[in-house]
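Tokenised fold entry reproduced for everyone:
>
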Amino acid sequence: MKLAPTVALVAMYQAVALALPAGRLEKRATVQGFDISHYQPTVNYQGAYNSGARFVIIKATEGTTYIDPKFSQHYNGATAAGLIRGGYHFARPASSSGAAQATYFLAHGGGWSGDGRTLPGMVDMEYGTASQGGTCYGLSKTSMVNWITDFVNTYHAKTTRWPLIYTTNDWWNTCTGNTNDFSTKSPLVLARYSSAGPGTIPGGWPFQTFWQNKDSYTYGGDSDIFNGDLTQLKKIATG
């Protein structure tokens, strides 16, 4: 059964313009941002802001045993530079439940406050290695959807916000069967490294809210593009 959109997500969909019909390409407002982790020990936050970036998404946790050692440094640096910021959690679906990992994330940097500068947390759903059970961590499509549901619902119950979901079109199709269970709840962060646009939008989402368009950014990390203007970005941060 298809659920009606929640009030919060309707507001987000109104804040970000509806997706364009396939094949059309129009110039529209966007906001530059980036994402970082301990793999970028030195980041020029102020340089990024001065160049036009207005947000950054920072790795906080992974599974239920790992806290990114650079999270606090990155978060404080981003705050001092005036960037809107938020944390992300790298999912390990085979190691523990979605609820356990959402709770761990929230305890170690993944929280949200309605200060207009904090994005809802993001859960990073992407390819597992062979030692982790392969692309889908050894889970069936149904089990993976259940795991994500557990994470998303736990995060929402504790913060009143739906977390962002990061993925690729390929992974989402392969590991969830292209479920649309989250398209009326969690904003989509779609990874596709291309100058031609974000490509096919999976999972019934009408558009991507953020697009990770490059695996490098001048001031550190990966390049991300918000699908709207700064006022709309601030609405997502405010709630």
Observations:
- Helices lie at 7-15, 45-51, 71-81, 98-107, 141-159, 169-176, 230-238.
- The longest strand covers residues 55-62.
- The chain is about 30% helix and 20% strand.
